[in-house]
Amino acid sequence: MYHDPSLLSYLALAYRWFQVDITPMADSTPDDRDTRIEFSIGTKYSGPLDGIFEKARGLAFDPYRGLLFVADRENKRVQLFATDNGGSFVSKFDSEVPVALPGKLKGPWGLAIDHERDRIFVTDIDQDRVLVCSLNDLSFLASFGSKGTGDLGFRNPRGIAIDRKHNRVIVADGSNNRLHFASAIDFSFLFTVGLARGGSPVEFRVVTGVAVDHDRDRVVVTDTNNNRVQVLSSVDGSFLFAFGNEGSCPGEFKLPQGVCVDDQGRIIVADINNRRLQAFTHEGHYISSFDCGEEPWHVAFDEHRGLIAYSASHQVHVIGANRWLPNTAFTWRPDRHRYAPERTKQAVVMVTMIRSVHYESTLSLLPNELLFEIFAFL
C-alpha cells in the first residue's frame, strides 16, 4: 500500500489529540511552568502590541474556526489567537475605532459566541452595554443595554452566555445583582432573575460569571461575594441548588469569578483569591483543583480540542484538559460540519469520491469526521 508522507504527517497531528499523557518538548516548556499547560499567550508586561494584554479578562473558544477570543480590558479591544498553532496571534478588533462610533469598546469584559448566527457578544463594563460583532469579518453589528436598573439596564455587566436551546442571551448584571435574559434574535428584554441583594436562593452579592449546561437545561452562576455557585433552571431561572462557601479548603471559594461547563457536564470555576481553578461534578461535588500561581479571572472550554483556557493578569494559559481532568476526550460533533469553511467541505467531498474508487489507499481508512479535521490544517 502506498503511504503519502504529507498525509501521514496530518494523521500524526490528529493522533496527538487522542493522547492523554503527552509530555511537552523540553525546549517549549520552561522549568517553572506546569507541564499540563499546552501554551501561554502574552507576557507579564502590559502594552498595546499584538498578542500583549493589559488585564486579560473574558475568554471564548470558537472551536469551528480554531480560535480563542480574549477580552483585552485596558487596551480596549478583543484579540484572536489560533488554538491549533500554539496560540499565535490572528487578528483583533476595535483597537482603532473612534470613540464616537457605536461600535467602540471601552471596557470589554465577557465574551460569548452565537454560532447559529455567526456573532460574538461582548459585555462592556465601562459603558454598561453589550456589543454584537460579526464572526466573519469582526465588524460591528449592534448593541443593546444602557446604564440603569430597568429592562435592558445594566450596571457593570460581566459574564455572558448563549442559551442556544431557548435562543437567549444571558448577562451577568454585576452590580444590579441579577441575571438578565434577552432574545438572541432581536436582543429584546425577556426577564431578569435576582430577587434581591442577599444570601438566600436566587439572591446575589455581585454576580460575575455565567455558563449554560445545555444537556441539563441549567444556568451556572458565580455569586462572587457570597463565595458560592448557584445552579438555576435555564427555562425560567428557578433555583435548583447551590454549592460552596468562603474558605480555602477544597470546594470552598474566595471570590469566584469565571465559570464554564466542560463536555462531561463538569463545572470549572475560577477561584480568584485562592489562585486556582476548581472542578466539580454537575451535581456540585468537588473533583480537583488546578494551582494557577496567580489570580485566574475567567475560564473557557474548547469541546472539540479538549482545552481549558484561563486568563490571569496579563497572560492567558491553555491547559490540555486531559492532563488535569481525566476523560475529557476529543469528541466528534456532526453539527460542527456545517460551520466548516467551504474549501474544507469541498476537499472532503473530493477525497471521499477518490477513495470510493481507490479503496486500497490510506484515505480509505479514514472516516469523514477525521477528514474534516485533517483538511482544516491545509
Verbal overview:
This protein is 11% helix and 39% strand. It has 378 residues and is mainly beta. It has a four-stranded antiparallel beta sheet with strand order 1-26-25-24. A hairpin with a 5-residue loop joins strand 20 (256-261) and strand 21 (267-271). Helix 3 (342-357) packs across helix 4. The relative contact order is 0.13.
SSE string, helices as H and strands as E: HEEEEEEEEEEEEEEEEEEEEEEEEEEHHH
User: CATH fold name of the largest domain, please?
Assistant: Neuraminidase
Q: Which CATH class of the largest domain is shown?
A: Mainly Beta
Number of separate structural domains: 2
Question: Which SSEs are present, and which pair or pack?
Answer:
Blueprint: H1 5-16, E1 37-41, E2 56-62, E3 67-72, E4 77-82, E5 88-93, E6 108-114, E7 119-124, E8 129-134, E9 140-144, E10 146-147, E11 153-154, E12 157-163, E13 168-173, E14 178-183, E15 189-193, E16 207-213, E17 218-223, E18 228-233, E19 239-243, E20 256-261, E21 267-271, E22 276-280, E23 286-291, E24 296-302, E25 307-312, E26 315-320, H2 321-324, H3 342-357, H4 368-375
Parallel strand pairs: 10-11
Antiparallel strand pairs: 1-26, 2-3, 3-4, 4-5, 6-7, 7-8, 8-9, 12-13, 13-14, 14-15, 16-17, 17-18, 18-19, 20-21, 21-22, 22-23, 24-25, 25-26
